[in-house]
Amino acid sequence: MLNELHKDALTEIINIGVGQAGNSLNAMLAMHVELSVPEIRVLQMEQAQEELSLLNTSSLASVVLRFSGPVPGKAALLFPPESALNLVTLLVQEEPGDLDLDSMRSAALTEIGNIVLNSVLGNFANFLHMDLEYSLPDFMFESSIHDLLEQDIAENGYAVILAKAHFRVSEHSIAGDILLLFGISSMEELSRLLEIVVREQSGQ
Amino acid sequence: MISNEIQDKFWILNQLPLGIFILDQDMRIQFWNRIMHDWTEMDQKQVLGQSLLHLYPEIDQPRFVPRIRAVLDGGPPAVFSSHLHECFIRISTRDGDTRQQNTTVVPVRIKIKASSCRLALVTIQDVTELNRRIIEHRKVRDQVVEELNKRKVIEERLRREKSFVSKVLDTVDALVVLLDKEGKLLHFNRACERLSGYSFAELQSTNIGAQLISPRDTDYLEFFFSKNLQDMPVHHENFWVTKSWEKKLIAWSNCILDDEDGNPEYVLGTGIDITEQRRMQERIEHMAMHDGLTGLPNRNLLQDRLEVAIAGSSRTGKKIGLLFLDLDGFKAINDNYGHKSGDELLKEVSRRLKQTVRASDTIARFGGDEFVVLLPDINSLQDAKKVAQNISREVSQPYSIQSCEHKLGVSIGISIYPDDAHNPEDLLRLADMAMYRVKKGSNQSECPR
Fold first, then answer.
1. Three-class SS of residue B29?
2. Count of alpha carbons within 13 Å of B446, Cβ hemisphere only?
3. Which of B75, B306, B342, B369 could form a cystine bridge with B70, CB 3.0-4.6 A?
4. What domains appear along chain B, each with residue ranges and CATH number?
5. B371 and B363 in contact (C-beta within 8 Å)?
6. Which residues of chain A are at the B interface, by a Cβ-Cβ cutoff of 8 Å?
7. Is the bond leading into B418 cis (omega within 30 degrees of zero)?
8. What is the CB neighbour count within 10 angstroms for residue A98?
9. For A178-198, what is each residue's pLDDT tens digit?
10. Contact B91, B39 (CB under 8 A)
11. Cα B31 vs. chain centroid, distance in angstroms?
């Protein structure tokens, strides 16, 4: 498992990624979107399920990105219904008119998921000097937490990294939470790679 | 040239129905497939090696470039939806509309002379038609939903009206039936159920004639149904045979309901049970026309029959005989043995009179001990005299009333139509007078005129 130093490093990596995602969103929306990650936790599969069970009943939209390489896994961005709605209104500012709301909603959320996950995973891979292969983002609507957490490749030490990200757009008084979920199949490899980074930084 | 390597590797992408091109690290075009050629009318030779941003300056925006850059740096694929960015590069359709595009930018890595090289594969799907269809589909769906909602409102209103109407129909005492044009029962209200003893469920969809209508009336009804409800009477009466085999006389008012084309479709009948009313009426009529003690017709009925007989006789040319009877010795028995014996005696006299005459003759009691016998269809006075003799003989036979033996006589006066008179009053008067003369005479029972 990860020690405190590893966790600090991981938190920082994810925070930087989320920060970059915020910049991308700003550029795209031409408005100031604050994205912050107040909380990151590393959980066992069972704990994660318990933690997220509250969300199980609501109509959850999610974008999933699978990755393979030294640390294979799956990253998902979960939008609780209210946040999803807020984000869509933000992205689609013109009158819906002839556009189809359902398609627009899935398209908008997929792209937000794509931007946020790409920044976070890009950073993650860069910092740990990994070459990862990625799938195209999948948009899922009303999928269960269990399906999201299920991992195709079950290696030793499978764990879930759960990050709660908060977004805020002051201009539009819109705020909400999105959940960032990493299912990591090889925690051993992850802690080995984090160890290298920690040592590099402390100059050892 | 890396381009050659790329052509070798990616030629298959020419076969796909998607616009595909490949960018190198400097965002220069290294591959341009056949669909891109079709859409842009620029072939690969024209664009190869050119910068994408130079060719399509509209891409040079913060929402596109950094994300493509990240892919070239080995990051995850980027997607650009037509719903958020109408198009990635501006390409027109044949009709001049901008093609709506879903675009993905995926990192690819190729090895050229032992060194690996990162590229970005850009795939553009033309979703103009797809989006149009989705919108149309949604419009149709919205219309259907709206239509369904409208219908729901109407159905709800109809349901409420129907329940109101059926409540009214079930509350009224009148019988209400709805029949289709074959005579099948479609509605049968509570009053019908109460009267007939049948539930609607038992009769539903059966023919009204099958169980309910008295066999005597079914032909009459079938006649109207066979003629497509033409000439269906507005008012008629028929008998129902109830579940407990009682006959009920019902007076119906009918109303024909037409379909949209004006053809008869339903019969709505409302009816009242008039069995009791009719029975009462008949009793009253009987009482008005009959003698309470003997059950024989009274003066009124005799008057009627006499008029009818006169009318008949003027057609057939036959004669009518009228016998006026007055009992001899009755008053004494009545006084000495009491009214009860007197009444019994009168009843016995009536019985004997009835046995003596033809069924077509009428015997009437004129009150007290007076009787009148009407003989239609006789040929002569002789015929009437013969009847008078027979009556006299029968009435004179001894009577046994309450263990006592009694004897009676009878005086009979006769008048003949048209020989003696032409109207009922005169005929009766003449017969009465003749009887009176007989009585005054020798108590004999024959003496016409």
1. strand
2. 13
3. B75
4. 2-126 (3.30.450.20), 172-278 (3.30.450.20), 291-440 (3.30.70.270)
5. yes
6. 24, 27-28, 65, 67, 91-92, 98-100, 103-104, 107-108, 110-111, 114-115, 117-119, 121-122, 125, 131-132, 134-137
7. yes
8. 11
9. 777 777 777 778 888 888 888
10. yes
11. 78
Angle at A5 between CA A117 and CA A168, to 5 degrees: 35
B45 contacts: CB under 8 Å, gap ≥ 6: none
Answer yes or no: do A27 and B75 touch at CB < 8 A: no
Domain-by-domain residue ranges, chain A? Answer: 4-201
Query: Which helix (H) or strand (E) element contains residue B336?
Result: helix B330-337
- Look up the CATH number of domain A4-201: 3.40.1550.10
CA dist B203 and B197 (Å) reads 11
Task: Give the integer Cα–Cα distance in Å for B36 and B17.
Answer: 10
Q: What is the pTM of this model?
A: 0.55
Q: Decide if the complex's ipTM is over 0.90.
A: no
What does the alpha-carbon distance between residue B131 and residue A98 come to, in Å, rounded to a whole number? 10
> Is residue B330 within 8 angstroms of chain A, CB to CB?
no
Whole-angstrom distance, CA of residue A106 vs CA of residue A109: 5
Q: Are A123 and A16 in contact (CB under 8 A)?
A: yes
pLDDT band at A23 (very low <50, low <70, confident <90, very high): confident
